[in-house]
Design a protein that fits this description.
The complex is a heterodimer. Chain A is of the alpha+beta class. Chain A is about 50% helix and about 15% strand. In chain A, helix 1 (about 15-70) runs antiparallel to helix 2 (about 80-110) and helix 5 packs antiparallel against helix 6 (about 240-250). Helices cover about 45% and strands about 20% of the residues of chain B. Chain B is built from 5 helices and 5 strands, in the order βαβαβαβαβα. In chain B, strands 2-1-3-4-5 form a 5-stranded parallel sheet, with helices on both faces. Classes of the chains: A alpha+beta, B alpha/beta.
Amino acid sequence: MSEQTTVKSPSPRDTVPDRLAALEAQLAQSQRLIMDLEERDALKTQFLSNISHDLRTPLTAIITHAEILRDGILGELTSKQRESISTIITGGRQLLDMIAEILMHARDSSEPLTLVESEFSIHEVVEQVTSLNESLVAKKGLSLERYLSPALPPVRGDRDKVIHVLTNLLGNAFEFTPSGGRVWVDAGMSPEDPDNLVLIEVGDTGRGIARDHHELIFREFAQVDSSASRVHHGTGLGLTIARRFVELHGGRIWVESELGYGSRFFFTLPVNRRSE
Amino acid sequence: MSARVLLVEDSPMINGALKLLLESGGFDVTVATTAAEAKAAGSDVRADVMLLDISLPDEDGLAVLEALDARGMRPSTTFAMTGHSDAATRERCIAAGCSDVLLKPVPVNQLLRIVSEAVA
């Protein structure tokens, strides 16, 4: 950190030129401090970006080797050995997802994200994301329902980022809904602007979120339960990134929930984004 | 004769696993860890399939495809491999002549299937 010097505060007994000089010195010191903090913030962001990238390589190797063992390529395994290796793979893939979130957040801080636009169907996006989760849904004993309005027009936006938002919301719904519960996706035109705004809901019958936490969950690194002994782990960046992606499209994301009564997450996407 | 796979991947931990996997599937695998090595190996013998990591230590991985193309040694099929398969990366790889873009780590059963389909 740059060396700090104490700047004398102006006193009422000083002459006007003296007070002006003291104020200017204070201003210059504040500017130096701001520059110093900005440099440190850029370094921190670069570090996060580098370390996230470097963590992916050994993790990719661990997952690939574990899959080779699981699939019996190096010899048959007992069912217990296969189960143990499958847990290594699941854990490794969870870790990769977390690293991807940190990397995305670090990139957004250093070089603001932009949209790669194309025209796409919300039906296809919902179908893609839900079908990828079918085995997880079955394994957890949940039911997954889709309510898609047949009249949805194609949307102009960043397909990958919309998939990311939907994957994140559904992932949370699956994680926080106990076995036997329901998760649903509902997509239609928003009553707010039925000609140009798509409204997508991801709902669940899970544990719900207290009203006090409805804003907190969208803040970076925030977790409703931040204790080390918490049951659900993550970077605390998933919903922050989801909100960033929705807002980049000119949409809005929010939650309606009561503790013990499930959650309903909503986000809107304009059909035709106005150029910025 | 076994189908030839040129595996271009700089991490020994990853290329070791993928070589093991592909050889178990009956492929003849050559490993290159830099763009220069890949250009040399790909110019000696034409590969049926090239698995190409697009982030290499000495050059952009897609330069390998361009160089082999210029020498008339373009592999029959090339799959790009990357840690971040966003739309812009995907577009760049497809424009360069890759058949598909695979997000690392590629599930091993998926990798064996697509390489087998490419040489069928």
